[in-house]
Every structure is written in structure tokens, then in C-alpha cells.
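Regression report. Comparing outputs from two consecutive submissions.

Submission 1:
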Amino acid sequence: MRIRSARPVHFAPSPRGFRTLAKFNIQINDDVMVCDCTLVQAPDGRIILYGPGREGNTLSCSPETRREIVEMALAAVELKNERAAAA
């Protein structure tokens, strides 16, 4: 798996305190890519992974895979932020 097109998002928190952190695509293998995934930080600090779409979560994976995707996406966004700051 690889994160593609990771980009930080700077929206105001929702009225309930949820904050969108990033949007990204994830390439599962050479033949499959899931586009327009989102990382959201809950008010309690948890990071939630959403798949594409507006009607509920369209991405289903094991807790271990979900954790791996979240870590990879956060690292990709952090690296992009570091590069922007250095420019």
C-alpha cells in the first residue's frame, strides 16, 4: 500500500468538534486505488479514517489495516508540511 496525493486540509471544526486533517488517495496495489479518503480528528483525539462518498463510510478494513493507513497518511501529510516549510 502507498499513500498518493496526500494534502492537509484546513477547515474549521464542525459544531460537534470534529476536525478534518487531510485528504488522500491510497494505492492498494498496482491495480487498485481508492481516491478521496479523509482523516478526521474526533474531539477525544482519535483519528477516524473515511473512504470516499458523502453517504456514510464506504471503506471497510480491519483495525490493523486502518491503523496502518492512518499512520501512513499522517506521515505523508507531515512530510509535505515539512517540505513546504523548508521552501
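Submission 2:
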Amino acid sequence: MLGYWIDGIKTALQPSSVMLMLLGVVGGLIVGALPGVTSSMGIILLLPFTYYLEPKLALLMLVGMYCSSMFGGSISAILLRTPGTPSAAATALDGYPLAQKGKAGKAISAALIGSVCGGLASGLCMIFLAPFLAKIALKFGPAEYFSLAIFGLTIIASVSGRNLVKGIISGLIGLLLSVIGIDNIRGTERLTFGISAFENGFEFLPVLIGVFAVSEIFGRIERKQKIEQTTKTVSGLLLTKDEFKSILIPIMFGIVIGTFIGVIPGTGGTIATFLAYNELRRWSKNKEKFGQGALEGVAVCETTNNAVTGGAMVPALSLGIPGDAVTAVMLGALILIGVRPGPLLFTEHPDIVYTLFAGWFIIQFLMLIVGFASVLVAPNILKVPDEILMPIVMVLCIVGSFSLRNNIYDVMVALAFGVIGYLMRKARFPLPPLVLGLILGPQAEQNLNRALLTSKNDWLIIFKRPISLTLLIFAFASVSLSLLSSYRATKREVNR
């Protein structure tokens, strides 16, 4: 094993290897920052270039894009409230308010530090804990996935702000929209109203672009004559000593939750980031800061986001099971370049595995260097007048929505949800619960159906399985604590 490690480090440190990793990191940063261009799409676009490379070198370039694109999504989320990737949606909750206060550079710095720490920690877990974590992942069945989705839905109470009722209504709207289309179990149409385009439901990314980005554009157009642009000034790009200390605990939160959720196949960074954000906010002494521009919120989301990458590679490499949508594409890429993931990968291709392990850490440091350059340059986007910036963002939103499936329907979905998001903002309905309902609704429904099918309609199956029961207990505790916190906050306001 020591010999494989030495060979892997030598290969990863070759100038050609470093250049390919750097190319992947820069490409990933650009892909992640562009609204609608997902990490999966970036890897697919990179695939043709890998045919002419050795498998281990090709893998290093692909992993470089994978890791960097996760951080790249935070840049547009912070600057424009337009998440470049779905998992950056939670980053926008505190990142954009920080940008409005002129602290965009600090927000991106916190995101960068969190991303690098999450990537390094998840890399260590990938190396040393892969067999153990893979065994845990194998114990998750439909009942466990359903309970995990229910636990995730309890976050709605925490991200609803001060108006819990409106937050719950927003979440219910998201759940209602998530059932539109064809039932995956029965094959029947639901709420399609005879419109064939509705049969496939709504793709999550166009909805995300519409709710966050397009609605923000509409809002800025309306506010233009009422208030001055608040994002003209950009102060302090790097974190102070105290600010750095404040994000250390959020980084630890993100590492633990991101790695664990990443290992579970079929979950992904979006669920993990919202879960981590919710738990950090719950145990924080300054809950009121979250959603108003808290560096801790940005740090925990981006740490979790990148901790998921290493966690998701565990089942992908050791079992051949994708941890999320991006690693599903990565598995296809591995097969195309002549590497078959699975239990035999570590014995049949140890040179590739240990080159990946060594390269993983080099990629994190390359991302730190490239990301530091983005901290210095990216905040200047906020100095561009709205008359120029907003049309460019709208074009990116339209192109990003269309490029997902080369379908004008997705563009119409983004615009329609832009109007919905704009109206919800006017009525002061929080948007994150709507997004959570759309993400977790299908997962909860489909896995509940599967659990009932396998148990012959025994509803007690979700309570009989230990992991499922534990998650449901956590869900109940989460709701109870959120309601208690909301009651206390209301009581304090009444007493004032």
C-alpha cells in the first residue's frame, strides 16, 4: 500500500497532472458560477477531452471540475441571489444579504474556506472510512429514505423566518407542485389538466432559477425608482481574525453532516446543505442573524456542499453506486475511460485509486488559489449598474434553463416561477420552504410507496426499522424545538 501511495503522489505531482487538475478546477469554477449549467453538465462537456488521456489523468481532471463546481455555485448565489448549482440554494439565504451590505468579498472568502476544509476532510473520510461508511449506506432502504425526507421537511419550520404560518403554506405549495406529472409507481397522470408538457412535472433547476433569480430581477426593476442600489460599495474582501474564528464551528458542523449525507446514495448536496444550515441555526445563540447576513450560514452551507463530494465518492468507488446525480455521471465517465467502479476497483486498479486519493488533496489547494483570485475579482460584478447587469443575468437564466434539456418548456417554467416567486416576495412568503417542498416531496412519496409495496402495505414498516425510527424521532424533536422557539420569540415580542 505504501508503494501505491508513493506512485500515486508522484503521478499527481507531475506537471502535466497539475495542469490538467488546474484546468478542471478553473472550468468547474466557471461552470458552477453560471446559472443552469450544472456540475453534471460540466463533466459531460469535459468527457470528449478525456479520450486522449490516460485513465488516471482523465479522472484527476474530472474530479477537479467536480469539486470546484460545487464552490463555483456559491459565487452567483452570493452576488446575484442566483444559485449556480442546486446545492448553492441554501448559500443564498445569508450570502446575498451579505453582498447587499457590501460584504460580498467576505462571504465568498467564508465560502472558499469552508469549501476547501470540507473537501479536505471528506477526502480523509474517503480514504480511511470508506468500508465502514459504505456498510452504513447499504442499510438504507425505502423506509429510511422516506424518514430522511420527512426529517428534511421539518427544516421548513426553521427557514420560514418569523412567519411560521406563511412558511408552512409555502412548503405545502412546493409539495403540491412536486406531485404534478406521472406517478412513478402507478403510471397515472396527476394535476396535468390535459397538458402533455406537465406529464414530466417540473425540473428542479428551472424552478430554482425562476424562484430565486428571475423573481429578483423583477423585484429590482420595481425597486429601481424607489431606492438606491445597495450593492455599489464593496468593503473588506478577506476575513478578520474574529470572523475566521466565528466560522470554525460551522465548518465542523458541515464536515460531519456533509460527509454522512453524501455517503447515502440518492441524497446529494441540496438536502445536506439545508439540513446543516437548519441544525447550525437551531443550536446557535444568535438565531436572529441567520437569513439576515451571517457568515456562519455561508460557511456551513459551503463546507457541507464540498464535504458531500468526498462522501458521495465512497459508494461510487467501493460499491459502484452513485451517491448523487453528479457521481452518477462520474461513474459513466469512469466506465468510458476504461475503469469499472466496484469492490474490485481497489485490487484491479490500485494505481488509479491512489492517484485519485493523492490528487484529491492537490485539487483542494488549487481550488484555494483559484478561489482566492475569485474573491479579489468577483465582487466587482456588484459595481456594474443594474441596467447592464440585470439583462445579462436574465439572458444567463434563459440560456441555463434551455440548456438543461434543450427545451423551451423549461424556459417557460423558469419565467412562470419567476412571477410566482415575485408575488410571494410581495406577500412576504418565504421562498426556501417552496424549494424544500419541491426537492423532498418526490423523495418522500416515492420511497413511502416502495416501502409499502415491499412490506405488503404494512405502515408500521417505517417504525420497525431502527434507522427509520431514529430519523422520525429526530424529525419530531426538530418540529417541537422549532415550534417552542417560535412561541418564545412571539412571547418576547408581545412583552415588549
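Expected: both submissions complete independently.
Actual: both completed, but the second showed a warning that disappeared on reload.
Relevant detail on submission 2: Residues 225-232 have pLDDT under 50 and may be disordered.
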